[in-house]
Amino acid sequence: MDRAAKAALGSVAIGLLVLGLKYVAYRLTGSIALYSDALESIVNVVAAAAALLALWISAKPADANHPYGHHKAEYFSAVLEGVLIVLAALSILRESYHGYMAPRPLEAPLPGLAVNAVASAINGLWSWFLISRGRRWCSPALVADGHHLLADVVTSAGVLVGVGLVAVTGWLVLDPLLAALVAVNILWSGWRMVRESVGGLMDEAASPEVLARIKALISEYADGALEAHDLRTRHAGRTTFIDFHLVVPADMRVAEAHEICDRVETALKQDVEGAVVIIHVEPEEKAKHKGVLVL
């Protein structure tokens, strides 16, 4: 099991722990807002399990039916998380409506709020870990899971403040209204996650920062070549595919051109984690006099 899969497995365990704590907080208070927080934690557990499955599938080597590997499985996991978030939000809105029509007083608000605060602190630390490591390891599934948890932390903070106000002021109608606001925030989080994942499924190019690094490396390490043009990139999970045309002098021997390609490929793979590089060598009459000029 690789490091990303271990992190996803940790998310399942953390999700179960936080779910248990938030359910206890809901049972202590009877708050609809805390119920909405607990319901989102159920989605967190399911989403973490989906991310773990996606990481396991994406780690499989290429085969006859999937010659480019299984990397895009992570994007399907992120899309599934987004859909689950939307379903959770709709369920919360339903409970909010019933709570607004028939408000009920809170029971033991302080112990419930304390338990919920502990759960939120755990989620906050774990979301930071997932986002930072997911970006470093180029794992869309971990980054999506981390952002999902971060949204949960933000909504939990709002819930804590709101339920505290209900306990202090006695305005029972604040509880279902707060739960409805949580649902709207969750809907936005789910939409953003689905949108980003669809971009990956549609072979979005690497970020401008990564693209600039790629161009700089080609220019620096392709000594002996003339230019590189038609540079293309795309992301597939933790893999970044890079392909371009490298123009060399017409009288250059094949072995020399191959040595340049090896040098550039090695530099790209060292700088861009998970890079898969394809270089098409062309003679100088194919030069387009644009793209990346070799220093």
Mean pLDDT: 81
> Which structural class should the secondary elements be placed in?
alpha+beta
Listing every helix as H and every strand as E from the N terminus to the C terminus, the arrangement reads HHHHHHHEEHEE
What gap, in angstroms, lies between the N and C termini?
Answer: 42 Å
Can you tell me the number of structural domains?
Answer: 2
Give the CATH H-level superfamily of the largest domain: Cation efflux protein transmembrane domain
Secondary-structure blueprint of this entry?
Blueprint: H1 3-29, H2 32-58, H3 73-101, H4 109-136, H5 140-169, H6 174-201, H7 208-221, E1 227-236, E2 239-248, H8 254-271, E3 275-283, E4 292-293
Structure, described:
The protein is an alpha+beta fold and about 300 residues long. The protein has two domains: about 5-200, Up-down Bundle (Alpha-lytic protease prodomain-like), CATH 1.20.1510.10; about 210-295, Cation efflux protein, cytoplasmic domain (Alpha-Beta Plaits, 2-Layer Sandwich), CATH 3.30.70. Helix content is about 70%, strand content about 10%. The protein is elongated and about 85 Å long. The chain starts with a helix and ends with a strand.
